[in-house]
Amino acid sequence: MNENIFRILAALTLFTGIGISSYFRRKADRDSGEKISRKVDGFVMMNIIKFGGLILWLSPLVYLLNPQWMVWSKIGLPEWVRWLGVGVGILCSLSIYWLFSSIGGGISPTSATRKEHKLSTSGPYRWVRHPLYTIGSSLFISFGLMADNWFIAALGILAFIAMAIRTPKEEANLIEKFGDEYREYMKRTGRFLPKVVR
Known about the structure:
By secondary structure, the chain is mostly helical. The chain is about 65% helix and about 0% strand. The chain has a single domain (about 5-190), classed as Four Helix Bundle (Hemerythrin (Met), subunit A). Helix 2 (about 45-65) runs antiparallel to helix 5 (about 150-180), helix 3 (about 80-105) packs antiparallel against helix 4 and helix 5 crosses helix 6.
């Protein structure tokens, strides 16, 4: 199979996800009139997010510009696995729209909540408290499968781990803001995946 087909499909899924995310994030900033500082997450986490985010975003771009520059991390996947990555990437892009349209103006770049934040319990938030972390990291893993590249897939896993480390602080902020309403919500939803047993 021609490498260019996977590059085009990888680019389409990645830039679709980025475009949707950027639109909803800018809209939330504009509608709320507030710009949330990343300092709320602390110096160490802020730098992990900045440095890790730079590598996370540059690696797919390097692959898209010239796959030969990333040949050192090529896996040698069968073609069907790469097509599986395409399918997962498309599902992730659709899910990104679903989750952003569900949370609306409540989206925040940090663990802090916006002043006018309303607890979102519809769309994917009906079953999962932090679907963005699951879907966002899955998008990068699917990109790694499409690109046949272990390094890009591993970055998706590491991004998920970093967000999972930050999640308890985020949930503490949500409990502080919503109190028992959020505690009840936690009982019936999973943190990153739907609860099997309630």
